[in-house]
Specification:
736 residues, alpha+beta, Cyclin A, domain 1, five-stranded mixed beta sheet, five-stranded antiparallel beta sheet, 30 strands, Rab-GAP_TBC_sf, cytoskeleton, repeat, WD40_repeat_dom_sf, Rab-GAP-TBC_dom
Length: 736
């Protein structure tokens, strides 16, 4: 039976009397261990380090603020203090669990011994305190509000100093990293200040990524002091590396995490999940996230009441959750992890190492070694990412280094990392066209499916026309696999591809891009006209042998390794190189295609992985690109590369053209087919009656098409003249 406390008197007992919280700390079921019922309109709670005590604030009669202590070992509760002002911050000291820090709206902070009731008043703030921080091995207690940060010595609690800050930018969090004796202050803009505790003249500043416009509301420090994560009114969280004093990455939270109201790291109590983050959003939903993989482990919510605050015990065994109905419930932290029967949990032992500050000499020595390694690595990457050497490196080894491929692609495409734009698109949710995408693709990897749906939805919210492009998921999917750890880069890479390499694909929608197919057909004709003639005799058009290669981004006919190699070359060359690769795939498949007896066999061959060497295909593509006539591979026809702008997205103006242009393109293509048939055998002395009849029909077809087009234009011209004459006569009558 779970324990229950009803705060209806100044003292009372916890029911049942034989309740023992210690025996329940290893439970793995999501069940309430202790339930505390308040009696007021507002409530806050905090757990002591090993959950001997629990402090709860509530409102009593005459709007008096009451602070209760629940003794979870002796199964009783009692009133600790009455205050006129509301409580603004509440925290137990992690080293001495009987010491409670309480901040009120009167700008005072109280240090209270919950056993004997002794109180020490800490004064010095000009406005009410919103946060209190103290580490288990730290000689400091830090109190802060949006304008000031004060340092207090422990255990004397004398005011040591007041940090000098810019009062124009609100402070959101402050803390002490005892492992390196550093002070950390974070601001609403995402800027982080780092000082050495003993020497505050050297200040390090870490700025959030450019273009990321988040109003930060919460920060959380990892138990080892290596990472600081911050979030706010966005589903993105920024990870700061306190070792390198830089931004490590931007985390894309799961779909249910619309924003970050409060975040806290759970202590490492699970053998498989060492870095776990508890994220509470403004809608009252608590998400438990695996920090290393940015995946959600569990969600905690109530059907009727939102969660308003959380408090984690220092040993990590328990978590207190306060709901909007003045109820606080205590859960075992182990129930927030996925069930794993293969591992047996062991109790986390109490730390045996006492507090100590690392000596300055050793710390400086470690910092020097770290800086040297960082400089060496920076020089290595800088030399590799010199754009003048990329192409030489690619042509020599036929591919980019696997270790740096992601970084090179991002730099080649010059992706702007517009976090705020991407965030706004994701906030619109999953597009209606892709709500049942899992039924179509049947992906086993839910993480990939999530990123794919998010990317497709963001693309469609940016360009609604793309919702009608049925092959878009298959085209985007290989890039999602490549950029799966960073959805923003994946989205911007696909947008860059659509605007540069795919700009002629949608001109005659829903028909394929005629221009790009004509270019591929011309390349094949110039290199191997008998192969093209064979395909034409089988009634196989470029729409059937070249278009599937393009709309799948070659992923259907290439292995993953070959696909990466091919796109190394495509992205490193102008957009006109893409049709050369498609034509090279057909030309290097000459023997298999010539052995095909009908159109069905050609389609079957081009819908499976090719067994031809990818290096031969790339060599042929470069030969076509170098030797082809510049008129149909020019920038005027196929365009030149233009990167995405900083701070926004261009308007998607690519779409279907006028029907007259489509008819004209089709007519010119048919005429080229007739001319090609004539050019295949230019020296044949005589033709059979059947061949002559076929040629005559082709010429008649060209004549009829031209005549029909001319008659159509004449009819439209006459119709316009009649309409103009009718309007002129009507105007003349009105004047009379």
């Amino acid at each position: 039976m779970r324990g229950q406390v009803v705060l209806d008197d100044i003292t009372g007992n916890l029911v049942p009397h034989d309740f023992n919280l210690g025996t329940l700390k290893t439970t793995r079921k999501l069940m309430t261990l202790v339930e505390i019922l308040g009696c007021g309109v507002s409530q806050d709670a905090a757990l002591s380090c090993h959950s001997t005590f629990m402090a709860v604030t509530t409102v009593g009669e005459s709007n008096t603020n009451l602070v209760y202590i629940v003794h979870l070992v002796e199964n009783r509760y009692y009133l600790l203090k009455r205050t006129v002002e509301p409580c603004t911050a509440l925290r137990f000291h992690p080293y001495q669990e009987n010491i409670l820090f309480l901040a009120t709206d009167s700008r005072s902070v109280y240090r209270i011994d919950v056993i004997d009731g002794t109180v020490i008043k800490m004064e010095g703030h000009r406005i009410p305190v919103v946060g209190i921080q103290s580490g288990s091995r730290s000689p400091l207690v830090i109190t802060y509000n949006h304008e000031e940060v004060l340092l207090w010595s422990w255990p004397s609690l004398s005011l040591m100093s007041r940090l000098r800050l810019d009062e124009a930018v609100p402070v959101m969090w402050a803390g002490h990293v005892w492992q390196r004796d550093e002070l950390i202050v974070s601001f609403v803009t995402g800027t982080v200040f780092i000082w050495h505790s003993q020497n505050r003249s050297q200040q390090h500043t870490v700025q959030p990524p450019d273009g990321l416009q988040i109003e930060f509301e919460s920060f959380a420090l990892s138990s080892g002091g290596e990472w600081l994560v911050g979030g706010g009114r966005s589903h993105l969280m920024v990870t700061y590396s306190l070792l390198s004093r830089s931004v490590a990455q931007v985390i894309h939270l799961p779909a249910s995490c619309t924003d970050v109201y409060h975040a806290a790291f759970l202590p490492p109590i699970h053998p498989r999940y060492y870095q776990v983050l508890a994220v509470l959003n403004s809608t009252g939903v608590l998400n438990i996230i695996n920090f290393t993989t940015s995946t959600k482990l569990k969600t905690l919510r109530a059907q009727r009441f939102n969660i308003v605050s959380i408090s984690v015990s220092e040993d990590g065994n328990f978590i207190a959750v306060t709901y909007a109905n003045n109820t606080t419930k205590v859960y075992s932290s182990r129930c927030l992890f996925p069930e794993d029967k293969s591992h047996i949990y062991e109790d986390v032992a109490e730390p045996q190492v006492k507090f100590r500050i690392v000596e300055d000499e050793k710390l400086d020595h470690k910092n020097d070694e770290m800086k040297q390694k960082k400089r060496k690595k920076f020089k290595e990457i800088k030399g590799l990412l010199d754009k003048t050497k990329w192409y030489e490196l690619l042509r020599e080894f036929n591919e980019y280094p696997v270790k740096y491929r992601n970084l090179i692609w991002v730099s080649i495409l010059d992706l702007p990392r517009n976090y705020s734009v991407f965030s706004d698109l994701l906030d619109k949710g999953t597009h209606l066209a892709y709500e049942k995408l899992q039924d179509t693709l049947q992906l086993a990897d839910r993480g990939l499916l999530k990123v794919l749906k998010g990317t497709l939805s963001a693309l469609t919210h940016w360009a609604p026309f793309l919702s009608s492009v049925e092959y878009l998921p298959e085209f985007v999917f290989p890039f999602v696999k490549f950029f799966h750890s960073n959805p923003l880069l994946c989205f911007e890479a696909v947008v860059t591809l659509l605007l540069n390499w795919c700009q002629h694909w949608f001109e005659f929608w829903p028909k394929p891009g005629i221009m790009i197919l004509n270019v591929i057909e011309q390349l094949i004709c110039n290199a191997d006209s008998p192969l093209l003639a064979h395909l034409m005799r089988l009634k196989v058009t470029a729409e059937e042998y070249a278009w599937p290669l393009l709309i799948t981004a070659f992923s259907r006919v290439l292995s993953h390794t070959d696909w990466l190699m091919v796109w190394d070359h495509i992205l490193s060359n102008p957009p006109s190189f893409l049709p050369c690769v498609a034509a090279a795939c057909i030309l290097k498949s000459r023997q298999p295609l010539l052995s095909c007896g009908d159109a069905h066999e050609v389609k079957v061959y081009l819908n499976q992985e090719l067994w031809i060497s990818i290096r031969l295909i790339l060599d042929k593509a470069y030969i076509l690109y170098t030797n082809s006539n510049n008129t149909f591979l020019s920038e005027d026809k196929l365009g030149k590369f233009i990167p995405l702008p900083r701070g926004g997205l261009p308007v998607f103006s690519i779409g279907p053209r006028d029907a007259r242009e489509e008819e004209r393109e089709n007519m010119e293509r048919k005429m080229r087919d007739v001319e090609f048939i004539r050019e295949i055998h230019p020296t044949r002395p005589a033709r059979s009656p059947r061949a002559a009849s076929f040629s005559k029909r082709q010429e008649d077809m060209v004549y009829l098409i031209g005549r029909d087009e001319l008659e159509k234009q004449e009819q439209e011209c006459l119709k316009s003249i009649r309409n103009l004459r009718r309007r002129h006569l009507a105007t003349a009558k009105d004047n009379l």
